[in-house]
Design brief:
The protein is an alpha+beta fold. The protein contains three helices and five strands. This is DUF4031 domain-containing protein.
């Protein structure tokens, strides 16, 4: 099992200051939860809980820390899309066929 962090780096504001956001994902929910706790992320920050799109949004400094702690860096959108497709195909709670505009490339 593996934890991943992509390189999306989408510009956004965090408490009024500019920040760049990426996605922290994992092969399993338990692994994502444990790794997020190690990074100091709150469980309430989890996005799309219980689906193949489950992830945390992380700032660039947390992205760097995640890699230092062992997360596998991957490209956005190619790597992120491949992971989501694999998770969707094996998820009992997510549709097995993507629908137009399902937003997977944007987690």
């Amino acid at each position: 099992m593996t934890v991943y962090v992509d390189d999306m780096r989408r510009p956004a504001r965090l408490t009024g200051r500019p920040a760049k956001w990426s996605h922290l994902m994992a092969d399993t929910s338990d692994e994502l939860e444990a790794f997020a706790a190690e990074l100091g992320l709150r469980p309430s920050w989890l996005q799309h809980e219980g689906t193949h799109r489950e992830h945390y949004d992380v700032t660039e400094s947390l992205r760097v820390e995640a890699i230092r702690l062992g997360a596998v860096p991957m490209s956005y959108p190619r790597g992120t899309g491949a992971l989501l497709a694999r998770k969707r195909a094996t998820s009992p709670t997510s549709p097995t066929v993507a629908t137009e505009g399902d937003g997977d490339s944007d987690v």
